[in-house]
Amino acid sequence: MLPARFQDWFAQKGWTARAHQLTLVETAQAGASVLLVAPTGGGKTLAGFLPSLIDLAERPRRSRASRLHTLYISPLKALAVDVARNLEMPIAEMELPVTVETRTGDTPAARRQRQRHAPPDFLLTTPEQLALLIAHPKSPQLFEGLKTVVLDELHALYNSKRGDLLALGLARLSRLAPGHRRVGLSATVADPRPLQRFLVPQPPEGEALAELVVAQGGAKPEIAISASDSYVPWAGHLARHAMLDVMTAIESAKTALIFVNTRSQAERTFQELWRLNENNWPIALHHGSLAPEQRRKVEAAMAKGVLRAVVCTSTLDLGIDWGAVDKVICIGAPKGAARLVQRIGRANHRLDEPSAALLVPANRFEVLECNAARDAVLAGELDGERQKPGSLDVLCQHIWGAGVAAPFDAAELYAEARSAAPFRDLSRADFDAALNFIATGGYALKSYDRFARLRQISDGPSKGKWRLAHPRLAQAYRLNVGVIVEDPMVDIRLQSRGKPMGAGGRRLGQLEEYFIEQLSVGDTFVFAGDVLRFEGLREDAAYVTRTHDPEAQIPSYNGGKFPLSTFLAQRVREMVSAPERWHVLPGPVQEWLRIQEWRSVIPKPGQLLVETFPRAKRHYLVCYPFEGRLAHQTLGMLLTRRLERAAMKPLGFIANEYALAVWAARDMSGLDMGKLFDEDMLGDDLDAWLADSNLYKRTFRNCAVIAGLIERKMPGKEKSGRQVTFSSDLIYDVLRAHEPDHILLRATYADAGSGLLDLARLSDMLARVRSRIVTRKLARVSPLAAPALLEISREMVARGEVEEDILRENEDALIADAMRVD
Amino acid sequence: MRCVWTDLSLTVNGQTLLLDRSGAAWWEKTRTLIFADLHFEKGSSYARGRQFLPPYDTRATLLRVAEVVSRRAPARIIALGDSFHDPFAAERMGAQERGMLEALAAKAHFLWITGNHDPHPPAWLGGAVRTEWHESGLTFRHEPQADAAPGEIAGHLHPAATVTRFGRGVRRRCFAGDARRLVLPSFGAYTGGLDVGDPAIASLFGARFHAFMLGAERVYAIPRTQVERRKRSEEIQPMITAIATAARP
What we know:
The structure holds two protein chains of two kinds.
Chain A: H1 4-13, H2 19-29, E1 34-37, H3 44-57, E2 70-73, H4 77-93, E3 100-102, H5 109-117, E4 122-125, H6 127-134, H7 139-143, E5 148-151, H8 161-176, E6 181-186, H9 193-199, E7 211-214, E8 222-225, H10 243-251, E9 255-259, H11 263-276, E10 283-286, H12 292-304, E11 309-312, E12 325-331, H13 337-344, E13 356-360, H14 364-378, H15 392-405, H16 410-418, H17 428-440, E14 454-456, E15 466-468, H18 472-480, E16 489-494, E17 506-512, H19 513-517, E18 524-527, E19 530-538, E20 541-546, H20 566-576, H21 587-599, E21 608-615, E22 618-623, H22 629-645, E23 650-655, E24 660-664, H23 673-676, H24 684-690, H25 694-707, H26 728-738, H27 743-754, H28 759-769, E25 773-777, H29 785-790, H30 800-819
Parallel strand pairs in A: 1-6, 1-7, 2-4, 2-5, 3-4, 5-6, 8-13, 9-11, 9-12, 10-11, 12-13, 16-20, 21-25
Antiparallel strand pairs in A: 14-15, 16-17, 18-19, 19-20, 21-22, 22-24, 23-24
Helix pairs in contact in A: 2-3, 6-8, 10-11, 13-14, 14-20, 15-17, 15-18, 15-25, 25-27
Chain B: E1 5-6, E2 9-12, E3 15-19, E4 25-27, E5 32-35, H1 42-47, H2 57-72, E6 76-79, H3 89-92, H4 95-107, E7 109-113, E8 128-130, E9 132-135, E10 138-141, E11 152-154, E12 159-165, E13 168-177, E14 181-183, E15 194-195, H5 199-202, E16 210-214, E17 219-223, H6 224-227, H7 236-247
Parallel strand pairs in B: 5-6, 6-7, 7-8, 10-11, 11-14, 12-15
Antiparallel strand pairs in B: 1-2, 2-3, 3-4, 4-5, 9-10, 12-13, 13-14, 13-16, 16-17
Helix pairs in contact in B: 2-4
């Protein structure tokens, strides 16, 4: 099947083409689109490009006009760069007449411009760059000869807003280059069908699917769980007790990747390891807040193989293959089986050798979670994902881009958008609302007609088409393209010795503005591997100095972005309710569950346990839904509203991945729990609460930025001062009060289903436990409740009334100080 | 000079002002209600640059003004400047909003202090227009002056403050004041805030001034030194031990 030149090359290398690589060549010859599902190390990328390489190798010499043949899209620009490098070898060794270039935000403007009229054969880029390319007036010429689109790490993209943007871009490509074929490359997923759908244009009725090729699975990984029979912490996420185990694991490996869930965990782990690092092994740190130069340095050192270990966050979940990594250590909760598989796959990129992983739970619940995750991975079971419909804010952005490219007909653009799988159920009314929003803001009561961004052409052959009202709007589109909205960030600069604050200083990286805002001068925190002292804020930078304190004062753990997956939660619940399976757990964890069984109860599968008990003049209610912190947080907000109405005087609550604890001034044991947990809380209570939920406002802000209501802050543009950047919260308040059905509020609500509020999951849980609530009135705190209570002093959850408490207590403290007689 | 307040009234240069939770100041003695930085039509001013913020900010602001007016029943309203976001703001105002403003003007006499955003408030508004106003030891002006005589009541700076507890900050608009002067929070629906710790505000006062933060139902007086202070949970470890012990049988 392979041309002689390719066969020889494989033979020369001592390789044999894998079955799935050959199948992909075959499907390409039939002109079909295909999804290749393969574990890491399976030669996936080469499989994706092989048909294109063969096609170009056989191309007659004189037809070598400058035409784009294959477009490759990856979620990471670093990956695009790496793949370009990896393609060099076969192209050079087989002397193929193929040019390869990357195009990312870092590509110089001159080259980007040249790529538009003289493109390479293979262009390797990202979803955002695709959006920019198709929004260019000359895009029809660029893409007319396109033969193949390769989508890498599709599992990480398809069910997200970036996936929506990509899907709309592909829908446009289908029109510009009819008949091109697509290749999706994906890690193992529970259900490949949505990915198959994503790859091909959807017909108005029914569904179309790309072909599916599943590569042979590699060797099963070897997963160990670090556990001590003498001590397992009750709470916390740092696994400090296990750092010697981690150090030993590093010493027995060539190169280890140490995954943690949050930036602050990464910082703390890095510090702890260096405290134990008597041999001075080169151990590095990598997370998204570090300055890019610093990250690049670590990556380069890793590629050279000079590092012994890297402590990292999800920034290294995907990405470049580092051959030398032979051990993966995961500290803390795995959160999901697929995530764990992905991380373990970062070790040993050879299919036939097992990857070696060590899981390090930081507390008792995490011990359960690690065991459940290992069982799932070894059984080959993965978390399914809830499929989200295409986001309206992304559609708005796409419509703006369409106007930038050329005047468009609304009905045609609507049909095109619906051919993209995430938008196949998009209604014409929603499409028109998005169009109106881009054109004039789309407000019902007052309009901005005279400032329109898009106008309908009133006569001539293009009559009725929508065109851009001003060329400046094309520039504004380009600056705002993309769906990744970062929290507002503040530069962290090291104050230069002997110089006034604000005068230069090396940049260490960036931190979220909300974190910086809570600091006062003199506070210490861990960042970039050091304990830093906050000195003050000047213009858009926070100035710090290094300290010799061994401990930082300000913790910043916020649980990480990803909640415990529904699938894994289910398995943890099953493990808890099955005492016959507890023998695999470490002694202290078994003891903990036994005492829980004796003192309270172990809920049966499908039941929700609700405990009440008094403690230190407060009354507690603790429940254990195991639905992840986000859903619990939402549940906490809603429950406290109800408890307030029931005159229970709730004072606060705390949510973690497994449990929710509410405390109140009154004893809640007499309440009808069935009523308290009734699904109808998702009606009016939810609505009332959303009005001033900070998480919801953050969700709104993201939608508003993506849709182009608020312009992105451009680096260097916000110099005029922080006070003038106005807050999306103010816009939210006004819009909600005066036009609650506005498209952006609907987009926000849709996001809340899966995003920061995890409403869909909460609603499933409430339905599941209806009439299956077990209650226990206890004399004091139960073993299962203790971990949740321990987090109370570490983390407080925002609630309107709690905010008032904070104000009040500050004042109380002040009055107490003023009235003291000593 | 000592700073005196009872139930969040503040005595500035001998005159007592009540700090209303809405962000307006109430000068009971002369039945005067004082607002700063209303920024009418800020939303639509962005639309000129094709950024389509919800066009309801003027209405939202006016509804809040009307709410305080109905509670206090003032004889006079002083707007401390930047009442209009730009020179064309009044023209862009919708008929309904104009009507609301006229209804307010029928209830109380308006004194428009000019600001940097609105050096010439529109004539159709009625009422008086001044760059400054002096009365009973108080001076009303838009932008606070560093060397002002005691008794200055101003806006312009949009003060806001953050208090932190349990690692969480709460940020609110606030009055900034002592016995010599008062800076009002901005009242407009789309107006942001400048931290009271910023030199632009802090330098107007001595070391001891207060941020009077706007709560949902009342105003909280927080000393400037307290605004940046935070309580730390240094007692975490003993608490962990206590709870873990209690959880054992």
